[in-house]
Amino acid sequence: MINRTAVLSQVLLVAAFFAVPSSAADDAALKKDMTSVIALQGLPCGQVVAVKVNAENDYACSCKDGNRYRVYVNAAGRVVVEKQR
Amino acid sequence: MGAHSVRLARIALLPLLLAAGCAAISPDASVAPKAEAVASQPAAASRATEPSAAPTPQPVPAVTPAPVAPKPALQPENKADRPATKAPAPSARPPAAPASTAAKSTPPPAAATSSSVAPPTLDLAALKEQLKETKAIGVFTKLTLKNQVDDLLQQFRDYYQGKAKVTMAQLRRSYDLLLMKVLSLLQDADQKLAAAIVSSREAIWALLADPKKFATLEG
């Protein structure tokens, strides 16, 4: 019983260890995606440093230069970047 | 004792297997933080703006075997369209191409044109498919690019219907700019597709700049 618990705890530990980098990679990919989207719209940003998920396909992005944008897909299927104050 | 060692071996193997799985993914992640994309953009831009430099990249032949079918039809007409459409383009280009790179890239075309006149090109459907599938661009970026492609197509539609005030030269500039955006997104993470797009650029323009071909695109 003790052995099983030990094995289980080790498995969980290992899983947790690898789960963190995976979500970090997703986060980095999302930031990169948002950076590209904002740049494609010709808006100043530099680099997106933080992304907050408002809803599905709706993000609040903070840029390195201090600008903040809301990036979302509207009903027509267009990506809209709105500057936030 | 034997059972203990088996358990220990299992415990030891599990992290190794997980680590091996992560190691296979890590190269993709390493592409993301590259900050050189902006720095290398002008180089790609000069590469992109010179159609004569397109035949030289090596990865092009590897990408194109399947979708090459429409190429022969596109290439000759492409040349025919060039004199009319080329004229406005150079005015927009000079800043992008430094003198040194121009001098560098001029010798290969002389050799390249003699050996292979027609660079392998992609048809629009194949290009669209590959852009959809590439992992070099995020979903939102792809959607933004699609919006911008749709906008450009609408501009062409308006132009041919006489609704728009834009000139063909302005449309060419918009097209070049859009292609440059796509290339700057692809050039580091999906060089094959970037090279294929560079080599298809004139073929695609030939489709857009000819009202009859554009009409077939629409239909």
Please explain how this structure is put together:
The complex is a heterodimer of chains A (about 80) and B (about 220). Chain A has 1 helix and 4 strands. With about 80 residues, chain A is an alpha+beta fold. Chain A has a 4-stranded antiparallel beta sheet with strand order 1-2-3-4, covered by helices on one side. Chain B has about 220 residues and is mainly alpha-helical. Chain B has helices at about 1-30, 35-50, 60-65, 70-85, 90, 100-105, 105-115, 125-135, 140-160, 170-185, 190-210, 210-219. Residues about 20-115 of chain B have low confidence and may be disordered. In chain B, helix 8 (about 125-135) packs antiparallel against helix 11 (about 190-210), helix 9 packs antiparallel against helix 10 and helix 11 (about 190-210) crosses helix 12 (about 210-219). The interface of A and B includes residues 7, 17, 32, 34 and 36 of A.
Rough outline of chain B: elongated
> What is the number of strand segments of chain B?
0
Percent of residues in beta strands of chain A: 25-35%
* H and E string of chain A: HEEEE
* Strand count of chain A: 4
Largest interface (CB within 8 Å) is between:
A-B, 26 and 24 residues
Mean pLDDT of chain B: 64
Determine the mean pLDDT of chain A.
87
Give the secondary structure arrangement, pairings included.
The complex is a heterodimer of chains A (85) and B (219).
Chain A: H1 2-40, E1 48-55, E2 58-63, E3 68-73, E4 79-84
Antiparallel strand pairs in A: 1-2, 2-3, 3-4
Chain B: H1 2-31, H2 37-49, H3 59-63, H4 71-86, H5 89-92, H6 99-105, H7 107-115, H8 124-133, H9 139-160, H10 168-186, H11 191-209, H12 211-218
List keywords for this structure.
heterodimer; A: 85 residues; alpha+beta; B: 219 residues; mainly alpha; 2 domains
Concise overview:
The complex is a heterodimer of chains A (85) and B (219). By secondary structure, chain A is of the alpha+beta class.
